[in-house]
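Field reference: sequence -> structure
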Amino acid sequence: MIKFLDLSAQYLRIKDDIDAAIATTLETASFIGGKANARFESEFSAAHDTRFGIGVANGTDAIEIILEALDFPKGSEIIVPANSFIASSEAVTRQGYSVVFCDCNPDNYTLSLESLTAKLTPKTKAVIAVHLYGHPCDMDALQALATQHQFAIIEDCAQAHLATYKGRKVGSFGIASAFSFYPGKNLGAYGDAGMILSNDEATAKRCRMIANHGRIDKYNHEFEGRNSRLDGLQAAILNAKLPHLSTWTCQRQTQAKRYLATLSPSPTLALPQEATWAGAVYHLFVIRTPHRDALKAFLAEQRIETGIHYPIALPKLHAYAYCNQASEPFFAHQSDTQLLSLPIGDHLTDADIDEVCTAVKMFFANAH
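Structure field:
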């Protein structure tokens, strides 16, 4: 079996580091806050060239807290790409703002600047730039639009740990950025966990206070906040994993190059295209074919696991029927039936990637 994800195998390779981190947490009873948390906030923010890091309970909370900290006027519109996980959009509506969807581009599935521009109104106060699948958005063009139309950029980096745009780490461009450490991410905890990064001191302080019951000091609550803290056990585990992230990232990039060198694009098979200015980290390697379901079934017969990210574009979900955007001629509204994620990650060998490629090519040879 070629697994889509194998967290058990990853654990066994770094078992001593993980076990020591967990044991230290239990021995010191450092479960909320503490040295492990402070260390991870400092080292993860430094790895992304940002001044401030705030550990939170999960990546969804990270986006919500950023939106709450920015405190836009009632009735504000926040633009979100149509192809993303629902966390990118539900954070908007749960803060009382109006979500507006824009399309994604066919090359790398990040937000389409043309579609985004068409959705801008005087009510637009922010755009959530989702660095989807680990490929960065075109940040220069997005920042130029933000300056022209005066909206904030919030980066959703849930799938983009260590990704770069023109050599600069994502997460360092917007007013603030949100990261997820869900177990399946490139850097994953053993439960839910998240991080807010920012270079803006006032925004970072406000986010930290919101995440910790509206306080900095223990009982000095300046306002009502929420309870969304990165617990000490997850912080310790992430500290143990962080030194391996660069190696794991290089492995993903090498595997992606192997896929791209071995598979051939055709009218029935589209491969992801990495922009010349991008340092993609390939959280997912997503191909596109009108024969998606048949290919998925064939690969399963060959004992190759795959995934679909995402099977329903956000505007087509029942949750967003009220937005009346499901019938818009978005590329995302057609591609959601064609997207297929192939296995990629540190658990795989070159031989595994070659086996997947052989199976994919066999499928298309038989299909034709």
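Note: The chain has 13 helices and twelve strands.
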